[in-house]
Write a structure and sequence with these properties.
Blueprint lengths: L1 H71 L2 E2 L2 E2 L9 E7 L3 E7 L4 E2 L8 H11 L5 H15 L12 H6 L39 E2 L13 H8 L3 H13 L6 H4 L21 E8 L4 E9 L8 E10 L16 H4 L13
Parallel strand pairs: 5-6
Antiparallel strand pairs: 1-2, 3-4, 4-7, 7-8, 8-9
Helix pairs in contact: 2-3, 2-5, 5-6
Amino acid sequence: MRHRHSFAMRQGQGGYILALSIAVLALMLVGATYIGQRMSLALKLAQAEQQRANDDRALESARARVLFLLASVPRSRFGLGSGPQAVALDGRYYRFGDEALVSLQDARGLFGINAFGLTGVGRQGIERLLGAYGLDAPTISRLTDTLLDYRDTDELRRLNGAESEDYLAAAGGDRPRNADLLTPNELSRVLGWQEQARLWEEDPITDHLHILSRNAFNPNTAGWRALAALSGLTPEIAQGLVRSRRSGEMPDISRMAFTGVIGDPFGSNAMVSLFPGETIIVTLRPAAGNWGHRMAVTHTPHGARAPWRIQYVQRVSLPPLEGERKSLPPLPEPGTLRDFGVKEQIQLPF
């Protein structure tokens, strides 16, 4: 009897030990899984940090090269430098080594959001630019009115516009600046603009704007949207002209875009200029990323403190590249754009 009781106790203890062992193993497995996940996450974070450091180093190197080129290489109607080796200033990308891409855009090839008055040509240009995004007439009228109310200095509301009380009633409560925009991205603060997805998705409207007060326009460095807005051409014709210019078939499209004499300061095309301006919009992006840094670099050839001024720097989201990165031309070396052995080369003020 005692033997049976002892055997039953041993069986019970054995079952308890087995259950405890299974529980301990399960806890060890959970712990190992948790530690493995934490190590995997830490590894990914370390790799991301390493990639970020590499991207920052590549962008800083590209930035230094671009500033040197802009400060030392004369400009021409061909771009930065002269002849076929010149760096185009129409926003196309160049490879800087294997880690970064560089884009240079002449500000004269963009639509000047602050360059025109609040009526007449200025309003027509804004409406044409919005029309290039396929917006309907009521939406175009409303967005134009709210932008003009944002820029003017009074509290008088246009028919479809918005003033301070409208901003305070809306979510966020930002007031209109009642002055010129400080950066192109400030458009997102204008009431109603942020809600128009077409303006911000694949080809954001901010890629076609500058904030300078000058209204000179260079059709040979413009994208098709700015060209349509400032010339009155249809989007289809503007796209065709830009394609012809980029392919080299028609390097100068000014006479196709504007009728009359080009270069006459007193003519109907007084705003048209075929020479790059003093401000270049520089976009630097990692070779494998869909983001980058954008800055507006203005040359000050008569400045006492510096040869250039950076007006703003922004981190921007960028659409995927069209085509293969390897097919892009490399950013030329400074020596191929200028003979540094020749002294006293004159760079005309812009």
